[in-house]
Amino acid sequence: MLSDHYHPWIDAQGQSPFVWSVIGSIAQAIARLRIGTGVTCPLMRMHPAVVAQAAATAAALLPGRFMLGVGTGENLNEHILGDSWPPGATRRAMLEEAVALIRCLWQGGLRSHHGHYYTVENAQLYTLPALLPPVLVAASGTRSAHLAGRLGDGLITVGSQARLVDRFIAAGGAGKPRYMELTVCWAPEEAEARRLAQARWPIAGMRGALLSDLRLPSHFAQAAGIITEETIAQAVICGPDPTRHHAAITQAAEAGYTHVWVYQIGPDQAGFFQFYAHEVLPKLHK
Fold it and tell me: Which of the 8 DSSP states describes residue 225?
């Protein structure tokens, strides 16, 4: 799963590339992995008609292995064109119309749409995959989880949140996949992992409107100044103890998630992969 950001949350995170170029590159280098956006906001910075074309091309490059994750976005990325930042209820309504428009364009042929938020005139996608990608909807609260169950082909959340899974299922999500992002920071020593997590991923300790409403990486850095290492360590699995990683994934399964993707904060990706290959995944396979 790849983030679709214009900015990183804080400058220390460094890179923030155009996700559709990255997906095209990955498509030429892999044969088995499934790839998805985690998540695209098809509301303001990216018009849903453009997202429809981008996702259709990605799905054609990755036959049966691409997923379009969508959500209501963050001011951090969406303010750049000078648009006002709508309240959550408006963004959910925009997302519903955007997803309907994307699916309409995916049906092929010449299409027009005159909706409350979007207008499309005489648009046709000529590159369409044989198998259309599922649309997974991100949720951070019960109202968006309800929308995801009604609208999406699956659910995405950050962290294990059983109440969101329950709301998703009750709104029509029974039998649909449910994805969770598990944030970890592997390093050979727990103290080093905790230090890295606080320096690189302070957003793990932020909640509510802070994540969606702050405008600049510098604003997130200012908010991070009041978040302690202990707070981050409670939200992120830090260090080399495989039982903690295993327990977090097991907890997600018990909460009703069908898939977990693991996000490694630290820079030692090779060490992280070896750790999961030899110490975490074998326990899960059993």
Answer: T
Report domain 1-138's class. Answer: alpha beta
* Dist CA 152 CA 99 (whole Å): 9
pLDDT, tens digit (0-9, with 9 covering 90-100), for 202-250? 999 988 888 999 999 999 999 998 899 999 999 999 999 999 999 999 9
Q: Does the annotation count 74 as an active-site position?
A: yes
Report residue 22 as tokens. Answer: 């990255």
Pick the catalytic residue: 74, 78, 79, 245? Answer: 74
Domain map (residue ranges) of the chain: 1-138, 177-286
What element of type H or E holds 155? strand 154-158
Tell me the pTM.
Answer: 0.96
Q: Yes or no: say if 227 and 205 are a contact pair by the CB < 8 Å rule.
A: yes
**How far is 255 from 166, CA to CA, in rounded Å?**
9
DSSP reduced 3-state for 218:
helix
The 8-class DSSP code of residue 277 comes to: I
Length of the chain: 286
